[in-house]
Amino acid sequence: MQVSLPGLLVCVAILAIAYYARGMSMIALIASQAFGATAVVTLTFLGGSSPLIYTLFEALLIAVVAARRRIWLDLGSVFGSIRPIWILTSLMVYAIIGAWLFPRFFAGQTAVFVQSKIRGTVVEASLTPVSGNISQTGYFILGGLTTIVLCTLLLHAERIDQLRRGFFLWCGLHAGMGVVDFIGKNAGIGDILAPIRTANYAIISNAYEAGFARITGPFSEASSFAGASLACLAFSYTYWRRTKSRFSQWLSVILLFLTILSTSSTAYVGLALLCIPVVLSMSASVLRGRIEREEILIAVFMVMGVVGIMGISLYRADALDPFIRLIDSTIINKADSASGHERTYWNVKSLQSFVDTGGLGVGFGSSRASSWPIAVLSQLGFFGSLMMAMLLGVLVRGLRGVEEWVAPETAAVVMSIRNASFAGIIANSVSGGSADPGVLFFIAIAVVSATRVNALRTAAVFERHGRYRAIQSAPAFDIPGLSAR
Description:
The protein is mostly helical. It is built from 16 helices and six strands.
């Protein structure tokens, strides 16, 4: 085991900021997502696996909650009132069993893609137990436990302020380090954030695409940074539309530019998909005849952008050639590139492994794909994919049917977190290689589920009080059980 000093210093800094923000363990966990290639240790006995620092904060949060005196009563309340927790627990058990059993039961019967210890690249090999069965399953179980302990906290105390501060801290750190990386690479300074990329990953931070420096921030590559940028953008944009916050408005602008400047196909495809609900919402407002000021502002910026691009092209015809080459290489001809062919091959073989195992899957962590849904299907099989789809359904439903019993600020934060999780899922669906949906997914499940239960409890209290007041104010002959004498 090798300890990383920069990783430890980053953890200390996050803890100090979280302590000052009055929400040490929860805020630290959320903020740690900004460091996508920072690890504290490298576990040599697990094939060189290097857990990112968010796993350390997950373990810290779980330990803090587990040490509470009322932990068993709190767990009983969680399992008794939040039904999705039973689905999550079943999926965790299935993942553990599958990670141990399926690579042994179907050994040699299908092809998978694993990390080569010698060349450090992904290679095709016959199915067999690998270190990823332990490490990847461990990360997934840690995420599931994080959902459970967050539910125990959110069910018994009002912590919406901690959630809001944590997510804005995460988005602020992500945007700030993205700007630093952009300035450093374009000013000739170099990769300023290299010292904090301590994870044992293939680091691709000095790459160029069509003459543009790829923005990676504190992540290992541009696509990972783009995925996190999409999630942060979804959070800040949703919060801005619901609360009219000026801070979140400008944060959304910065994150939008960073997403575009990342030069990643994940960013552009994900951004196009995220624009669909925005356009539908604006269209609905037009049809209702109730256009909001923020929607007018968005339309004005879009028109100004189009006019600006047309003006530049008229002034100098070849001025936009670098951008055209960028779009051509990242979107139009991406599928025809060597990387596109390779990733397509991963997905095709992963689907074939699902068929070869009779729909049971190759086991969590046994292989990698190039799309999260395909990775889930190939590793968790039909039953695991069904349970994952049910958890996704929790996020899709959100606060539908109970939002009237939720405070406006609480609803804004919850829906912002939910949309951030969706954006992360979209990014993983474009280029994710693991069946693990990520820590943001587990946080969102806890926040949405606990808020729904609290809203239903509030509704029940109001209903009981309403009936009581109606009985008290009713005439004697209208009270059930009493005679009209």
